[in-house]
Design brief:
530 residues, alpha+beta, Udp-n-acetylmuramoylalanyl-d-glutamate--2,6- Diaminopimelate Ligase, Chain: A, domain 1, Beta-Lactamase, Alpha-Beta Plaits, 4 domains, five-stranded mixed beta sheet, four-stranded antiparallel beta sheet, 15 strands, elongated, CdaR-like_regulators, Purine catabolism regulatory protein, PucR_dom, PucR_C-HTH_dom
Length: 530
């Protein structure tokens, strides 16, 4: 298979129309690719070229004007032309020595026809060959794509995919995974071995060689690099496209393996169930995580719990969503374990980095997951979750779950108050459920707020709302009146009434704190009744 889709100047010289052509200068540049053949007879050409053109000329209008001829040659080189072919046969002129030296210094092919040729025959012949090669390239790529697709349907196709790519390129092929040992496909010569070792050790190559690299990307994460080591300036467009197709096939294979792994993980719940019910010791948990997940002691764990009305098939059953979440958390420094408990999806996040910034990393990852869910389920309810307390002891993971559960409960009954998904940010609100069970919340509300609540019921008043906003604004009358859309005089009247019901000391520190907590308690109790 010919991997050179574009002609090089050296290929052009082998065609029948160049039998009587002589290379005057730039033999080192004969590797230049010829993308098109163009006839030019005017000296001003810098706006006429795109690069890669082989220029045919008789220079009839400026062959005897050295400065114009030099400017013509300089424009060709600066524009990236592949070479210049000159026919002086009818006029019997020589190419000026200055032009030959200038072209040689820049490795620019300067070719002279020693016998008369027809430019129209040259362009027709070369363009036909180029188009045929282009069609052949498309056919070969289509065949390769079909073969790669067939391989993707077989188990463990990685080596077969690499072998297909290797057969279609020239050079040394490497697959360098992010984790694991590189895979190398090359001949067995000592020189090749030394070249590969030098590249792997120093990420550099000796003069005359260069690297073409394609990332194996899945779920916006790089899993490996597909690398081709080849001689400088020899890579063809065909080989570049082969590398693209190979990297894409490897990415699909990686994604399939991730799906398979995810499916396996969702079925391995027995051990997790015992962990959840605190039936494992700390040492057993650490040993199991290292043995089955390859994790050497993480620094702690935290539970991310999804609201119960998110159906299992939306989260745990959506393999794409799970694989994407795993990738997101991995970038944030967490290893994800998924567990189902009574219809709720738990994300057990094992922290693989330092403890100090776990919350910031978890928050960014959670935001990315929210955006992912919104893209997957456009127009549906916003995904809702709580993130529990951070546990440095893995056997206490259930406590983190209970804390995350409390976050979800408070989000439900006090949606206006709870903005953060973190249990750590609940502060005094953590006490609500415990105090409710003991009956203290009702007592608190009755003692501090009952006069105001009864007054509002009997008089259709808004004292409770006024008190709530007055406390939230730190006693600012101007801000309170603004938020209530009332005049100052009305506010003063309401505040007088509040002082009469609650006492003149209601804004003093101890009582004010009690009133603020009583308001939170009242909202919590009201939310639980609905």
């Amino acid at each position: 298979m010919n991997v050179d889709v574009h002609f090089q100047v050296s290929d052009v010289l082998k065609t029948k129309h160049f039998t009587h052509a002589k290379v005057l200068a730039g033999e080192k540049g004969l590797f230049r690719q010829v993308k098109w053949v163009h006839v030019l007879e005017v000296p001003a050409v810098e706006d006429l070229l795109n690069g890669g053109e082989l220029i045919l000329t008789t220079a009839a209008g400026f062959h005897d004007q050295l400065e114009v001829f030099q400017a013509f040659l300089r424009q060709l080189i600066d524009s990236g032309a592949a070479g210049l072919c000159i026919e002086f046969v009818p006029l019997r002129f020589d190419v000026p020595e200055e032009l030959i030296i200038y072209a040689e210094e820049r490795d620019f092919p300067l070719i002279l026809f020693t016998k008369e040729v027809k430019f129209v025959n040259i362009t027709q012949h070369l363009h036909t060959m180029m188009i045929e090669r282009q069609y052949q390239m498309m056919a070969d790529l289509e065949t390769l794509s079909s073969k790669l697709n067939e391989l993707l349907l077989t188990p463990h196709p990685q080596m077969d995919i690499l072998d297909q790519v290797y057969q279609h390129v020239r050079g040394i092929l490497l697959l360098i995974p992010v984790q694991g040992e590189p895979i190398i496909l090359c001949d067995s010569s000592k020189q090749t071995e030394e070249l590969v070792m030098h590249y792997l050790q120093y990420a550099s190559l000796p003069k005359g060689y260069e690297v073409t690299q394609k990332q194996v990307l899945a779920l916006k994460q790089t899993f490996a690099d597909l690398v081709l080591i080849h001689q400088s300036n020899t890579l063809s467009e065909f080989e570049l496209l082969v590398m693209d197709k190979g990297a894409n096939a490897l990415a699909q294979q990686t994604l399939r393996e991730l799906y398979t792994e995810e499916l396996k993980k969702t079925k391995e719940n027995e051990w997790l169930q015992k962990w959840f019910h605190e039936e494992h010791t700390e040492r057993e948990i650490i040993e199991h995580l290292e043995e089955t997940e390859g994790l050497k002691k993480p620094t702690g764990c935290v539970v991310m719990l999804f609201q119960k009305n998110h159906q299992i098939e939306e989260i745990a059953g959506n393999l794409y969503f799970l694989v994407s979440c795993r990738s997101i958390f991995q970038r944030a420094g967490f290893y994800l374990i998924v567990y189902e408990h009574q219809g709720q999806t738990l994300f057990i996040l094992l922290n693989t980095r330092k403890v100090e910034d776990w919350k910031e990393r978890a928050e960014k990852a959670a935001n990315d997951i929210t955006q992912l869910y919104d893209r997957e389920k456009p127009g549906e309810a916003v995904i809702n979750y709580g993130i529990g307390s951070y546990c440095e002891q893995f056997q206490h993971m259930r406590k983190s779950f209970q804390a995350a559960k409390e976050v979800l409960h408070l989000k439900k009954v006090m949606p206006q108050r709870i903005k953060s998904p973190f249990y750590q940010d609940l502060h005094m609100l953590r006490l609500m459920s415990v105090m409710k069970e003991s009956g203290l919340l009702e007592c608190m509300v009755k003692e501090y707020l009952e006069p105001v609540i009864l007054y509002d019921k009997q008089n259709s008043g808004r004292l409770y709302q006024t008190l709530n906003i007055f406390l939230q604004t730190n006693g600012s009358k101007k801000e309170t009146a603004s938020q209530l859309y009332i005049v100052r005089q009305t506010l003063y009247h309401r505040l007088d009434k509040l002082h009469a019901l609650l006492g003149e000391d209601m804004m003093q520190a101890p009582k004010r704190q009690a009133l603020e907590f009583a308001i939170l308690a009242y909202e919590f109790l009201q939310g639980n009744r609905h």
